Amino acid sequence: MPASDDGYVTAETAVVIPALVLLFGMLLWGVMTAAAHIQCVDGARAGARAAARGETGAAVRSAALSAAPHGAVVRTAREGPLVRVRVHARTAGPGPLALRLDAEAVAMSEEGTGVGSLDGQ
């Protein structure tokens, strides 16, 4: 008489479902981390553009924070004709899953560069 296979499907499902849930959670966390990093890059670029135009420090921070993830920290520095904006943030997640994200953008200051209109006048 052949053996019955009644319990194998239940046992396999009990192993596969938690593994799939864990895999889906890891993929979701990775996508959210990538999106937060892109927001940091966008925030740094927006801040560098504002700083290059000669905006005030508060306006630069506001421009950077408008594109950066919630809770980001913005730092600005001027190095000669260059303005440098750094955005630091942390990803969502418990303990070691909360990674630190950094992005930096550099732009040439438009103040005193002698740049006229695009048509050369």
From TrEMBL:
InterPro entries: Rv3655c/TadE, TadE-like_dom. Residues 7-49 form the TadE-like domain. The chain crosses the membrane at residues 15-36. It comes from the Bacteria. The keyword Hydrolase does not apply. Keywords: Membrane, Transmembrane, Transmembrane helix. NCBIfam families: TadE_Rv3655c. This is TadE-like domain-containing protein. It comes from Streptomyces bathyalis. The lineage of its organism: Bacteria, Bacillati, Actinomycetota, Actinomycetes, Kitasatosporales.
